[in-house]
Write a structure and sequence with these properties.
The protein is an alpha/beta fold. The protein is about 30% helix and about 25% strand. The chain has three domains: about 120 residues, Immunoglobulin-like (Sandwich); about 180 residues, Rossmann fold; about 110 residues, 60s Ribosomal Protein L30, Chain: A, CATH 3.30.1330. The protein contains eleven helices and 20 strands. Helix 2 packs across helix 3, helix 3 runs parallel beside helix 8 and helix 5 runs parallel beside helix 6. It is globular.
Amino acid sequence: MRYRVREFTQLYSFVFCALALTVLFSCRSTKSAEEQLADTDLTKDPPKQTLFLTGTKPIEQVTNTNALQFTIERVESNDYPKEIRLFARVFDSTGNFITNLAPPVRGSQEYWKKLTETVAVNQKRRKRTIDIKDFTVREYGASDSIPYAINLLIDYSGSMNGVMDILHDGAEMFIGLKQRQDQIAITSFNKAFAVKVPFAADKSYLTDRFRRVKQNDFGSYSAMYDALLKSIRMFDSLPQEMPRNIIMFSDGDDNFSTTKAREVYLAAKEHNVHIFSVGFGYTHDDVLQFIAEQTGGKYYQVFTKQALRNVFLEIYQSLRNYYLVTYKPPVFAGEHKIELDLQINASDTLKAYGAYSTADIDITSNPSDSFKKLITFEYNKSTLRPESESIIEELVDQLMSPKNENVWLEVQGHTDSTGGVEYNQRLSEARAQAVVNALIQRGIDTKRLVARGMGMMYPLKPNDTEENRALNRRTEFRVLRK
């Protein structure tokens, strides 16, 4: 009997706690969304202090130019090697975007003094810095009235249960911030993806429809990568020239997707979509930050409702106010480091830094992906041709990059169909080994490389013309480990 009483007492305590928690999470504040955003913490930890853009100020009103901050917020390399686009911002210590520094607001780009790119940036290799002589700077502001397409993607999985009211209020607040020409959609995900509000420009329609459906589609699992991929494809219905952005609210947890991070990255690049990720409280920062950085967006971590409001204002400010720097880059497969100099007066030079990669092996690669450039050989030979030198050098720089230091490569040698099977097998092995030897001579650890002859069994092209046979006399690369 003593044990039965104890079991009953424990059961009673459990039920009481469950009911108390239910009441706690069921209670809705009578305050407005604006008031809730101002005073409710998402965690007991003190909020992080982050500088957000709050307004604009012309350069003529700045008294201390040395205190200005100059950053490259985003690098777009989609059109490489034709063009690189840098999105730069200049702001003061109170969050004002500094205007009147470039055409068309200013008559010239006299303040923008120097732009350089450094390639082969690994410390173990020689560096090469190139001065970009011909670059243009264009100032953009709210008066440009560019129509934006923005998809608000909200995590409706179980791990976000405690902050759903905040997300709902935040979504309505974001609708309230939109400009007349913008199109906004609202979507959600758990293990399934749902379109709550399709793309629309009318604020009243957006708000009314969202209020009717915002309580639907909650679930336990999270398929974040699947949802991102579907959100990206939603932009296909809109004009291609509209800047496309996803703002995703999530803790970064994914336990149900069949889509991989690389697929999201490639789709975002193909559709020119930038993803801003907003994390609440304790999150998978590395995942959310990676998604934002790889797609040209930005990652924010939010601890209070007021910070959420600041993030929304920041995103809209950053979309509207920036300096666009465009130039033709040097052609190099690997890491590119950018340095941009802004000199407002003789004594104050501000520097901003950026980077992008044109590496054929990169951090989003799956083990089955390969370095895409081929090294071709002359008929019946396994010696490297002079034109292969640049490809070898680029590959060495990528393998020596810190992000690829754990990559192991298989070098696969191939032949055309001329000659016997056994002879071509030996020839393909010699070609693979020639490339491996060249990489080892340049400092790549031999344990990271495997030479493998593929013979004549895997032609790249039909062996029906001399041009095709020349392409089949090649080596290819496969990533074994990363």
